[in-house]
Every structure is written in C-alpha cells, then in structure tokens.
Specification:
44% strand, five-stranded mixed β-sheet, Alpha-Beta Plaits, two-stranded antiparallel sheet, alpha+beta, Asp23/Gls24 family envelope stress response protein, 116 residues
Length: 116
C-alpha cells in the first residue's frame, strides 16, 4: 500500500503498481518520450521498455500520504530535454492527483538515454 484516502463511506488503499502504471502511461503520452528505461541487473545496462510493463521504469515512495516519484526515461534525439521533463512533471502531477486523490510532493525525471 503506497497511499490511502479515508472518506465518509470507507477508505481506499492504492498499491504501488497502480500508481506506477498511471505514471508510466502519463509519461508515454508526452511528446519526445521513446520509452521507459529499466536497469538490467545482470549487465548494469539500461534497456528500453516500450509498452509491456511501464511500471518497471518508475520508483515510488510515500511519506505522510505524499508521493515521491522517480522515473527513468529514454528520449528522442533532437528534442529539448528540459521542456520535455517539465511537460512530464506537470502531466504526472495532474493525472496522479486527479485519478487517485493522493498528493504528489516531488517528481524526479532521470534521462537514461537518447534514441534516434
């Protein structure tokens, strides 16, 4: 359980994988993102994840019901990294807070590579 919301009729618990999938899908909607990056433990290499399991490139921690999100992405060559990272941060914050009701405190975007 990464976060929960208590209402008048009961409570809702969110697992880490549900929030990670929302983050992964929100990231892939942004222009310039080729895919998520996942570290291959054997080789220490970063591999591209296109659509099969987008939550593998996302790490989520929770503190006081506020989420700290860290994601690893691969971008398209020729795009401005700072603009794309800002778009990703805004989209993730908006989508996670609207879909779940949980508060997002920080989002860290780690660019692991650039693909042509």
């Amino acid at each position: 359980m990464i976060g929960s919301i208590v209402g008048e009729n009961g409570y809702i618990d969110y697992s880490e994988e549900v929030v990670a999938n929302i983050v992964g899908l929100s990231t892939m909607e942004c222009y310039g993102v080729v895919g998520m990056a996942s570290k291959n433990a054997k080789d220490g290499l970063w591999e591209l994840i296109k659509g099969e399991n987008l939550s593998r490139g996302v790490k989520i921690r929770s503190k006081n019901n506020e989420l700290m999100i860290e994601l690893y992405i691969i971008l398209e060559y020729g795009t401005k990294i700072s603009v794309i990272a800002n778009n990703i941060i805004q989209r993730i914050k908006y989508n996670v807070e609207n879909y779940t009701g949980l508060k997002v405190s920080t989002i860290t975007v780690n660019v692991q590579g650039v693909r042509v």
